[in-house]
Specification:
By secondary structure, the chain is of the alpha+beta class. About 25% of the residues lie in helices and about 25% in strands. Strands 11, 14, 17, 18, 19, 20 and 21 form a seven-stranded mixed beta sheet that branches. It is globular and about 85 Å long.
Length: about 450
């Protein structure tokens, strides 16, 4: 594989860092089996990281003698994923050793420790980094050495060496990266270092200046679980597991409040139909709501922001990178429309369709689900009205649009049949005051009720 410095014996392949400084990945499916001869760059397995499905390729040609793990296992970065043997060699007896279950210490340890005990060269030092898009075949870059991590905190005079992605993980974990001993090349701090440090006693103190709380793990047996009458056990895996982690982090960190209102979109619905006739493309109400959000954020910029809890900062953004919640068979995903404020309703509609299709067929690129500054959730497409949406942390606000319904309305003492759109806005009360949240929602309502100012 291009650019990789291969181990001298090519007897094993460790799970690489998947490009964003992640410490682990979930094994979704194997594309090879023990005893199979593979080509260089042939896909070995599919792994789930965050909300992206990654194909992990073989760094060289050879015969697979052992696969380590089964679908659903959480594999640590640096654990043995595949072993190679001589052509025609018999696969290892019995079932392939499974990686440890989804815990915080030891995924993939069975395969890794067996090789170290056997004295295989390079068992804990040869590791590549996968680079490329998250939807296609990836390549592996030069390996780097890892030493056994030290658990004691360190004090640095200068800035800790780490990639931006690793620094982001440190902020999310509430860990002071300056105190973490680095085991990467030249003392660089890795995602694995952060995870091990966060799980140690020395990580009990929060990051200096940070105000994001951390929750304690729920110990087995500490909560009564009634196991009777269970017809199905569904583990938190894949996208569903990442959704659970993201929502848990948001609820633990942000201080939610929700304000609701209704907009008379009777005139906007007529304008929408006219717009559809002119463009020759059928448009829903969603892109017009998006356009209203973008205009309202110009007037209320504090809602177009993210929180950097580790550094106790609020980062108010200029461009509107609008996240749009998409329901898929694998769970909720939130792709991001960048510079949404510069797009017309037709352009917003086309981009939503493109990103939604990419989410559903799992071809969405990781970078297309990062960097959001505000999120909209269209709960009305499934029949809901009002909601209490959970903020897409580290953003500070999210708007849920319900289903527009015909209502008998009154204006100036006159009754008429109109179309009412329910709206629910959740904000982070640490950043957005209740009055400002209400004013923002009122601005959105005003724009939706005056389509001449919107389109």
């Amino acid at each position: 594989m291009a650019g990789i410095k291969q181990p001298s014996d090519k007897s094993h392949f460790l799970l690489p860092d998947l490009g964003e400084g992640l410490a682990e990945a979930e094994l979704i499916s194997w594309k090879v089996k023990a005893g199979e001869t593979v080509k260089e760059s042939q896909t070995l397995a599919e792994m789930q990281t965050d909300k992206a499905l990654v194909e992990v390729p073989s760094p060289w040609a050879g015969t697979v003698s052992e696969i380590c793990g089964k679908p659903g296992d959480i594999i640590k970065v640096g654990a043995v994923l595949v072993r190679y043997g001589a052509a025609g060699a018999k696969p290892a007896g019995g079932a392939a050793p499974a990686a440890a279950p989804a815990t915080s210490n030891g995924s993939g340890a069975a395969c890794l420790s067996s090789q170290v005990a056997a004295g295989a060269p390079g068992a804990a030092e040869d590791q590549g980094t996968v680079v490329g898009t998250m939807s296609g075949t990836l390549t592996v870059s030069d390996r780097f050495a890892r030493r056994a991590p030290e658990q004691a905190a360190v004090a640095r005079d200068g800035k800790a060496l780490a990639t931006p992605a690793v620094r982001r993980i440190a902020r999310e974990l509430g860990v002071d990266i300056q105190r973490v001993p680095g085991t990467g090349r030249n003392g660089r701090v890795t995602a694995t270092d952060l995870e091990q440090f966060a799980g140690s006693a020395t990580a009990a103190a929060p990051a200096a200046g940070g105000f994001a709380p951390r929750s304690a793990a729920i110990a087995p047996g500490s909560v009564y679980i009634d196991g009777s009458g269970v017809v199905q056990r569904v583990p938190f895996r894949g996208v569903r597991r990442k959704i659970a982690e993201s929502l848990d982090r948001s609820v633990r960190t942000t201080v939610h409040f929700t304000v609701v209102d209704e907009a008379d979109v009777t005139a906007l619905d007529q304008k929408r139909k006219e717009y559809s006739r002119v463009t020759g493309q059928k448009l829903s109400m969603l892109p017009f709501i998006m356009a209203a959000i973008c205009k309202a954020l110009r007037k209320h910029p504090t809602l177009n922001a993210i929180t950097d809890d580790a550094n106790s900062e609020i980062l108010v953004k200029g461009p509107v990178n609008l996240g749009c919640a998409v329901d898929t068979d694998n769970g909720l995903m939130v792709p991001v429309i960048r510079d949404a404020q510069a797009r017309s309703p037709l352009e917003l509609s086309n981009e939503v369709k493109r990103l939604a299709a990419a989410c559903k067929d799992r071809s969405i690129k990781r970078e297309e689900s990062l960097g959001g500054t505000f999120t909209i959730s269209n709960v009305g497409s499934y029949g809901g009205m009002f909601a209490t949406p959970i903020i897409n942390y580290p953003e500070v606000a999210i708007l849920a649009a319900g289903r527009a319904k015909e209502r008998v309305m009154v204006e100036g003492g006159r009754f008429y049949a109109g179309l009412s759109l329910p709206l629910s806005l959740s904000c982070d009360h640490r950043v957005v005051d209740g009055a400002e949240g209400a004013r923002f929602l009122n601005t959105v309502v005003g724009l939706l009720e005056s389509p001449e100012n919107l389109v």
